[in-house]
Amino acid sequence: MPLGDAAQAKSLVPALITEFIGTFFLVLTVYLCVSEATANPGTLPLAPLAIGTALGVMVYMGGHISGGHYNPAVTVGCALSCRSKLGSTWLQVLSYIAVQCFGGIMAALVGYGLRYEPTAKAVVLAPSSVGPGIAAEIIFTFALVTVVLNVATTETSQVPGADGNINNQFFGFAIGSTLFVGATSIGKISGCAINPAVGTGLILVDTFFGGGASAFTNIWIYWVGPLTGAGMATAVYFLTNPREYAPVDKSADQKA
Fold it and tell me: For the chain, how big is the Rg over CA atoms in Å?
């Protein structure tokens, strides 16, 4: 459909509501877990598990409605994969990213309110240093988007169910587990946002309720890193999944 088509815009509404809900609960979980781990370091090992589980269950919740992206990097990766079955247009891509970022900001605000104390500061998201931080964001966003593309969108390796839909019951677990691995591995290097919506929400709330303008200077890391990782993942997907782009032999289907 052409950009701005009224019917297309209407069809986006359920997907955008789902993306907001999923991103909201993902970022809220991140905020509350990091806030608790900061106050009580003994709970730190549980934070990656809770965050990965939150993403997994939200993917199961909304995957059939919106695709369960909850992450601008995933949305960009799916769009760049250039397969019409994903239904990605610029309207959908930009709408998804806007709603995801809005959900992230609202979740961080709610998290700050739930954990508010007169002497408490907002959760701080910042790399240990710029070079390792952005490298970590690129590497693990690459891993996340690669997993998403392969387990949730690849059709040639899946078996359609009775309803014609792809029958893969493990995609949510795989995607959530990837985030769990990332959060455990690079949490102390970059904070493991690997999601511009997470970075935007946490950094904006920290800017206004704690760190001031200096906190905002890190926001580019959490956009450049994840989007670069998503682009790399898409390039590798092109190379490793040529069957996804092979022309469909309609004559063979008709003979069958």
Answer: 19
Model confidence pTM above 0.70: yes
In this structure, which amino acid lies at residue 150?
Answer: N
**Closest to 95 in 3D by CA, of 120, 69, 114:** 69
Could you tell me which of 89, 135, 111 has the C-alpha nearest to residue 31? Answer: 111
Per-residue pLDDT of 82-120, as tens digits, reads 865 555 578 889 999 999 999 999 999 999 999 888 767
Rounded to the nearest 5 percent, the helix, strand and coil shares of the chain are 70, 0, 30
Q: Largest Cα–Cα distance of the chain, in whole Å?
A: 73
Distance CA 27, CA 50 (A): 11
Compute the distance between CA of residue 108 and CA of residue 13 in angstroms, rounded to an integer: 23
DSSP 32-45: HHHHHHHH-GGGTT
Tell me the per-residue pLDDT of 223-250, one tens digit each, with 9 for 90 and over. Answer: 999 999 999 999 999 999 988 887 765 4
Q: Work out the angle between the directed axes of helices 171-186 and 46-66 (0-180°, nearest 10).
A: 140
More confident residue, 168 or 69: 69
Closest CA to 234 of 150, 171, 134: 150
166 forms beta bridges with 160
